[in-house]
Structures are given as structure tokens and as C-alpha cells.
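Quick one, probably user error.
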């Protein structure tokens, strides 16, 4: 753990993220539970289908998506298979390489472009990649907590992209301050569920264990989380007034534990930092009349 999160600079955080994600790009899909968790993947598919359908009725041609911090394509490959065109931006060149190969193997090369850059410096990236200005939807999955300031992408995107209609954020840790402290029964339930999740994930034998957490790279997941109500306010102030999706859920290793916690025993589910995640989608104007 760093001595103080306050002494970390943006450069420290960028550097840790670059090293971590460069070194793990090739094994990324094998070592991260959420990519195999069928509960999480199903929720993601439902969200992306809803977003795509909502925009496609008013679109002239394919919908142009920006997958910020695209990694190995958890979102990009789904968006491409729905019929969208995708720009993927990632800090780690190897992530872009891995994703470019996956996109080509899936037959979507013509609809994808991958750029190396930082999610919190889109203004610089736009100088060499003007196509960023044309994106209609920005999708962000599990990236904001890696940034020094998670507000920056929203400030820059609303300035940079005049055609932006929708912002989708998912799999980010809820802010510590917004969580309800668990009571005694919930604590006991949580301990039991955690043990089941660990045992079950070992029984299933994931091929490779995830590397130890890097608190500097996962900055806000160790600090105070991400304030989803502040994101909603920022977007709303820029005209994104329709809340299309908003939910909280607990991230678990296995599908079985996710379903138990988030569906079957929903009333017992308690808030835990940084396990309680949020998903938020906000839309600007109305899809039917093409307003922005
Ligand atoms: C937890 S992974 C999520 C990847 C993908 N979005 C997904 O849902 O699987 C975080 C990704 O963000 C990238 N990343 C970290 N810091 C970044 C930054 N400042 N700008 C752009 N990408 C960044 C990492 O390289 C990594 O690919």
C-alpha cells in the first residue's frame, strides 16, 4: 500500500497502469473473473443491446462507439457484433494488439480502429485522430478507477464530441461514502458467501490466478471509489438528462455467488467497499427526434 494516496501524481498512476497492463495483456482473459462470470456478462449484453436498439432507430448508418480503456475487448467485441463501429482507446499498446487480433479473427476488422492514448487526455489524442469527434456513444467498463481524476473523461468528452448521445459506465466501485454500513446479520451472510465464492472458484479451478492487486494502478478502488451521483450530475449539466440504466450490484468471482448475492438473496445483500459496483447510462436529447 502506498503511504499516502495524496502523494501520488498522475504520472505515478499512469506508469503503474502501463506496466501492469502491458505485462498482463496476453493472459488478461484467463486471469480476470468478471470476463467468465456469466451473471456479469449477461447484464452487460442486456445493457449493450438496450443502448444499441435505443439509438439504432434514429441512426443514419452504423452507430459509432468509443470504448475507453478497451482492454482485450470485453465491450468492443459485443458492440461490433451488434453492428456498431468501434474506436478502442487504451493506455497499453499490447492491449490494443491483443484486441486487434481478436477483432480480425472475428471478421470485424473493417469496423474497428484501436488507438493508444490515455482516457484522461483525449484532447491530445484528438489532434492525431480526428475521428474521435464523431463518436455517438462512449462506453467505459472498469477504467475510471485507474485514473488520477475520474472526472476528466466526462469534462473532455462533452467538449470534444458534438455528436455524443449516450454515456455508459459500468463495473466501477461505488464511492465509499455512499455505502450503507452492514448490520450484524448481513456481515455473517457476507462472510459465508465470500467463503463459498472462494471455495467454488477454486473448485472450478480457474486456469490462472489474477496477479496481486496494485493499489497504485487500481487507485480509486483503494482510495474512495467513484461517485456515480457526481457523474450523473456532470452529464446532466451537459444535457444528458435521461437516465437509461442505473443499478448497483456486488462483484463476485463466480456466477453462482453473483446470482446468490444479487438475485436470490437480494434482500440480504450488503454494501461492501470496493465490491459494490455501479452501472450508469445517461442519454442526451431524444433518440426519436434526433435532438442532441
Ligand atoms: C480493468 S481493465 C478493463 C478493460 C475493459 N474495458 C474490460 O471491460 O474488460 C482496465 C483497462 O484500462 C486501461 N487503462 C488504464 N489506465 C488507462 C488510461 N489512463 N487510459 C486509457 N486506458 C487505461 C488498461 O490498460 C486496461 O486495458
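Nope, works fine. Designed sequence:
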Amino acid at each position: 500500500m502506498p503511504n499516502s494516496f495524496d502523494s501520488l501524481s498522475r504520472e505515478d498512476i499512469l506508469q503503474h497502469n502501463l506496466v501492469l497492463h502491458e505485462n498482463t495483456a496476453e493472459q488478461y482473459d484467463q486471469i480476470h473473473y468478471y470476463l467468465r462470470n456469466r451473471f456479469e456478462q449477461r447484464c452487460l449484453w442486456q445493457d449493450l443491446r438496450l443502448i444499441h436498439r435505443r439509438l439504432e432507430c434514429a441512426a443514419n448508418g452504423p452507430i459509432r462507439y468509443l470504448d475507453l480503456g478497451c482492454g482485450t475487448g470485453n465491450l468492443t467485441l459485443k458492440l461490433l457484433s451488434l453492428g456498431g463501429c468501434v474506436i478502442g482507446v487504451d493506455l497499453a499498446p499490447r492491449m490494443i494488439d491483443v484486441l486487434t487480433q481478436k477483432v480480425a479473427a472475428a471478421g470485424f476488422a473493417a469496423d474497428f480502429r484501436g488507438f493508444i492514448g490515455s482516457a484522461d487526455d483525449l484532447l491530445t489524442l484528438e489532434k492525431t485522430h480526428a475521428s474521435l469527434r464523431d463518436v455517438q456513444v462512449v462506453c467505459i467498463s472498469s477504467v475510471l478507477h485507474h485514473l488520477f481524476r475520474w472526472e476528466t473523461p466526462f469534462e473532455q468528452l462533452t467538449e470534444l464530441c458534438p455528436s455524443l448521445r449516450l454515456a455508459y459506465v459500468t463495473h466501477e466501485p461505488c464511492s465509499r461514502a455512499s455505502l450503507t454500513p452492514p448490520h450484524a446479520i448481513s456481515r455473517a451472510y457476507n462472510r459465508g458467501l465470500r467463503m463459498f465464492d472462494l471455495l467454488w472458484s477454486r473448485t472450478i479451478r480457474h486456469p490462472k490466478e489474477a496477479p496481486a492487486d496494485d493499489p497504485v494502478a487500481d487507485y480509486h478502488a483503494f482510495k474512495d471509489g467513484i461517485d456515480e451521483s457526481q457523474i450523473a450530475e456532470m452529464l446532466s449539466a451537459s444535457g444528458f438528462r435521461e437516465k437509461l440504466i442505473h443499478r448497483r450490484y456486488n462483484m463476485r468471482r463466480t456466477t453462482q455467488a453473483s446470482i446468490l448475492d444479487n438475485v436470490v438473496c437480494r434482500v440480504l445483500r450488503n454494501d461492501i467497499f470496493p465490491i459494490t459496483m455501479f452501472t450508469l447510462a445517461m442519454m442526451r436529447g431524444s433518440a426519436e427526434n434526433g435532438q442532441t
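Confidence is low (pLDDT under 50) at residues 287-292.
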